[in-house]
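Margin note from the TA: students keep mixing up input and output lines. Inputs are the sequences; the output is the structure of the whole complex. Example:
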Amino acid sequence: MHKKLILLLTLLAAIVCGGTTTTLLADEASMAKVQKLIDAADAARKEAASVGGEWRDTGKMIKKAKKLLKKGDYTAAAKLANDAAKQGHLGYEQAMSQKDLKMPSYLHY
Amino acid sequence: MKKVFRTLALLALTCSIGATAQASTPEEDLKAFQDFFAKRFPNVETQDFVNGAYSIDPVGRENWEAIEEFPPYEPFIDDGMTMWETPFANGKTYKDCFPDGPAMKGKYPYWNKEKGMVITLELALNQCREANGEKPLKYKKGPINNIVSYVASESRGQVTNVEIPKDDPRALQAYENGKKFYYARRGQLNFSCSHCHLQNAGMILRTEVLSPAIGHTTHFPVYRSKWGTVGTLHRRFTGCNKQVRAKPFKAHGEEYRNLEYFLTYMSNGLPLNGPGARK
């Protein structure tokens, strides 16, 4: 009876510890992945800023993504980081497309 | 909210029709710019554009004229006069930097050949403070608005006459950069300054009449009811950029100084009437 109980407890402990380790490893992997997304978003924002094309909310979105990452809300953080990266790329493309002066046709010279 | 986005998208689409690139002189730009508004608003006297949206919005004008009976910017002018007369810690005053007195807004912005940059009124005032061992004032909010209100009030009636010196190509470049800024799309809403204040001037965006660009610089600084205080032109630039969801630039940094240079040049010939009162 005693032996059976010890065996059961050992088995239970192994399952719990194994599960925790797996969760921790998964957490670390997710955290690193999201951090990469945030870094990429920040790089895109900086690239847009370098040509004067940064959008109003990109920086705020990145800040919020960092906060969500700290809280452990990886899904929301990743989504926000991806959106911010998109804004960074679009801001850069927009600024480059406006590099040359385009005078409106309704102004008559 | 969806309706607003739809309206803005439609407006952006309309704005995207027909854009051409061409080289032109500042004089040609000025003529084309002022002719555009003369044709767009044939019943408005050119000089009346100094009143912004109220030159084209009779109902708004009535309200504004009532507000002007007790101008909300008056206390700022009084405080600015005190600032002008109060000596710095070293015993000198603003008058030592500006010996011709506070009626000097008509000289700004100007191209400074030695420094190779556009000098705005606010920048000159801060340079004076720094030269006398004082901390520069913040450019958008606070006491800068008092001193600028006083200077603007004393300068009323002076005529906008921005010059682009022909002996320094960097001046023309600064003007061109300001012009490019004005006509460039920016921000998430993909709008340029000209989309609202040139092409769509007089149209209604939500509840507001879009003011014509001509005369925009004459009445600053302005007391805006929205702000509950007086604010500078560069604070307004910041607000406009934010409204199209672009990250604003630094007040009195190169981008906005050049923009002010171009935009003020576009009002050449119009009298100064600041400070103003706006919604």
